[in-house]
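Format notes (please read before filing issues)

Several people have asked whether sequences and structure tokens are stored in separate files. They are not. Every record keeps both together, in the order shown below: the sequence lines, then the token lines. Line labels are part of the format and must not be stripped during preprocessing.
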Amino acid sequence: MPIPGTPSRAELVGHLVRTRIAGDVATPRENNLSHYRKLANADRHYWFGLELGDRWSDEQDVLAVMAERAGVNDDPEYRYGQDTIDPELTVAALDRLAGRLRKAADGQQRVLLATGHPGGLLDVHRATAAALRAAGCEIVVIPEGLTTEEGYVMQFADVAVLEHGATLWHTHSGEPMKAILTAMEREGRPLPDLVVADHGWAGYAGQHGVDSVGYADSNDPALFLAEAEGTVQVTVPLDDHVVSPRHYDPMTAYLLAEAGLS
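Then the structure lines:
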């Protein structure tokens, strides 16, 4: 169950493992490897709005980065069964993310928050937006009337999301973020100083030259590759859709406390 208040680092590590946000996660090894292979084979669905060229055409190179940055098993011969996210890597990335949030707060920067995984991470982003606003940041209001082939781009609880059929939509696409940034440029509005997001929302923002930080699962390698290349500043490894979204509350509390925002 969620830890009341703000956990210590050790308490958070234990909580991440118990709730399978990290540790032995639900995503199986064969799914991870399948996604690494598809990214290496230039399936753009797995590029998350990034332009990876032919730099990651060897799936073993992708696996090596994922072992280093997310903590999956580094043995290329391990093909089936349980895979892992190292909770220490998760917390270390949260610490780096906290540093970037602190910089945003200190500079009262313009911040855009977005999620392609509203079923898991919407409230993480909402709480982050509230804390940044309280610290004096401007939470970017997106232009109205934006659409992609998948649906409507809109804002809910200060977080940009994709809506389809009156439902908040899960998407890997970078097109919603592209629609936002393109519309802002067309209207002559300054782009965000920072994007806090996940999936293609974070990937496209980083590719577009905006400071971008985000969360990613062990079967979503693109943002980890982007962090390795410097296109995305921070990628936090975690299971992005566990049994209850409340399980992320201690993680969010820890993040905001480390950023000096709670």
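For reference, the curators noted about this record: The longest strand covers residues 159-164. The chain has a mean pLDDT of 97.
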